[in-house]
Amino acid sequence: MTDRNLADWHNRAALFEQEINKALIGLERPVRLVTTAIFARGHAMLEGDVGVGKTTLLRAVARGIGGAYERIEGTIDLMPNDLVYHTYINEAGKPQVDPGPILKHGEELSTFFFNEVNRARPQVHSLLLRVMAEKSVTAFNREHYFPHLQVFADRNRVEKDETFEIPSAARDRFMMELKIETPENPALQRELMFNPRFYDVDALIETIQPGILPYRELNDISRQIQHHIQASETLQNYALQLWQATRFPKDFSIVLDNVDMDRLILAGASARGAGMLMRAARVTAWLHNRAHVLPEDIREIFHETMAHRVFFNPTYELRRTQLAEQLSRKILQQVAAP
Amino acid sequence: MNNKHFAHFCLLLTLYLSGAMTAIGANIEIELDTPRNYGYSLGDKITLTAHIGVPLFYKLESGFLPAPGPINEWLKLVSIESIPLKPDKDYSLAVTYQVFKIVRATEELTIPPLPIRFMHRGKPETVTLPAWTFSYHPLIPANKADSSIEPEPESPPQLINSTSHNRALTYLLGVSSILLFYIVWFYGKIPFLERYSGSFGKACRELKKLKKLPHSRAVTLQALQCFHHALNELAGETLFAAQLSAFFQRHPSFQPLQEKTEALFVISQELFFAEVGSEPPAIGPAQIEKLCLLYRKFERSGRWI
């Protein structure tokens, strides 16, 4: 791979974003973040109200990447086996076992969407954890690998009944946790409401040019980006400070309203999280057509890559959304570079 | 009435009319306290004190008391003042006269009765303070001619003690001078005592030191750090290139520096975050100091003491 190849991929990334933004209006930032996750080869958790376009976004992404796309709904009675295989009586009247959504496409599986992941039981979460971490699963006495797999999960933030909070270890596996919201712009709202183009999702997805980013090459290009984009010593110091600030905010004179800062943090971001921050930052710099990372690149993805890795004391966990946003904002305000 | 009773009555009447105690119409009692009745000469002041007892519904009309001024050709009324009351009396007045009569031999002079007015049930009623006689002496002996008298030299006026005023004035001048000095220093008008407070003031001080060092990448980076630190301090948060326009909107007084600042940020980003090149940086502490001095100027002008 050469610089020319990277430039070529940069054009593809731009086209990919452009195509998706054509189909999903008002979601430029989530599209940018998903693109970043794709090139950083990170999994992403989507959070948002019902009907804001999460599934449409992922279907559009799957079409733009190519490869196989699978989707499963999280329910309280879903068991890990349901992801791996399903049994039924076939036409011949004999019991038959077929591969489940994870195994069905083998190595071709590129996008796996777990809808309402918090409705599934912890057993299912642990299987998901393994698939996300190792990109493999053991079934039918052998290992199945999914080298191109990228997991997207969705968490409904409206309903909390009959849900299971995702364990911290599983949350840490997600590179990003991003919010999808209805566009605030009245013109876009009008467009979504009255333009018949947006009524038929299947037809809308069909308008996206397929396979803009060949999924089989994404791992390689991701490696290239990580090696090619430089992070200076000053930048490294800045990123380190940001990481430390998620662990010891008080040391950085960070104070949140009505919060005892000595008791707020149970655990700051992990080393894996800090690594993911830099992976995403390098991709952001590359998407901005730069060969070096700037603090702005880190700031652009800081909240989405770090906030869900900070674990608050149970007293404050109930106010997570509000406190995590405040904490991210204050960290970015306090930590300077250079 | 026999002779004995008549003589007793005459004695009481005499005592009554003598002035030691006067009752007017058996209603208003005036008791006159007098000083010695001898040893007065030209220019002396004599104060008579009248203690007045009045029945119910009598009220002294202070507006009708005689006004200070000449009473006759040799006597002047200096003042009539209320003084603390004597027990069982309703009014106490201190009446001061000054005598100016020129005499060649000792004489007896009489201060004439002084009228004072009371109001009783809406009707005025006037009573008089009794007359008072005293002996009065000449200043020059009778057997000495006026021409032989050597007048005493005029005594200089008594000086008012001005120590406290002097002290207050000194204090005021001192405070004013300190205040004036502070204001002049605050606005940097004293060249030999340049003011280095404020975020950019401190940065300028650092840059002045850095300017003396040989030009190198490390020195430029240090100088840029000074600038960024000062700007962050001024903004109250860390500022990056993307936040600059918002910062200048929040602080319109610094708006003229926006272009220069953005240009410096571009250079700073190149130096801090891009790949390290071998060539020396395009700018040095001197150029950064120039911008800092402008910031300091705007920072000062935007301040209020």
Walk me through the structure:
The complex is a heterodimer of chains A (338) and B (305). Helices cover 48% and strands 17% of the residues of chain A. With 338 residues, chain A is an alpha/beta fold. In chain A, the strands form four sheets. In chain A, strands 2-5-8-1-9 form a five-stranded parallel sheet. Chain A has a two-stranded antiparallel ribbon with strand order 3-4. Chain A has a two-stranded antiparallel ribbon with strand order 6-7. In chain A, a hairpin with a 5-residue loop joins β3 (85-89) and β4 (95-99). Chain B has two domains: 3-139, Sandwich (Immunoglobulin-like); 187-301. Chain B has helices at residues 3-17, 163-186, 199-211, 217-235, 244-250, 258-273, 285-301, and strands spanning 22-24, 28-33, 45-53, 58-60, 69-70, 75-82, 91-99, 107-111, 114-120, 123-129, 132-136. Chain B has a six-stranded antiparallel sheet with strand order 1-2-3-7-6-5, with no helix packed on it. The radius of gyration of chain B is 46 Å and the shape is elongated. The termini of chain B are far apart. The model of chain B is unreliable at 10-26 (pLDDT under 50). The chains are: A alpha/beta (338), B alpha+beta (305). The A-B interface holds A 230, 232, 234-235, 291-296, 299, 332-338 and B 221, 224-225, 228-229, 232, 237-238, 240-242, 268-269, 272-276.
Strand order of the largest sheet of chain A: 2-5-8-1-9
The tally of structural domains of chain B comes to 2
Quaternary organization: heterodimer
Count of helix runs of chain B: 7
Question: Segments of chain B where pLDDT lies below 50 for 5+ residues?
Answer: 10-26
Proportion of beta-strand residues of chain B: 15-25%
CA-atom Rg of chain A in angstroms: 21 Å
Question: What's the number of domains of chain A?
Answer: 2
Q: Determine the strand fraction of chain A and express it as a percent band.
A: 15-25%
In N-to-C order, the SSE pattern of chain A is HHEHEHEEEHEEEHEHHHHHEHHEHH
Number of helix segments of chain A? Answer: 15
Unreliable spans of chain A: none
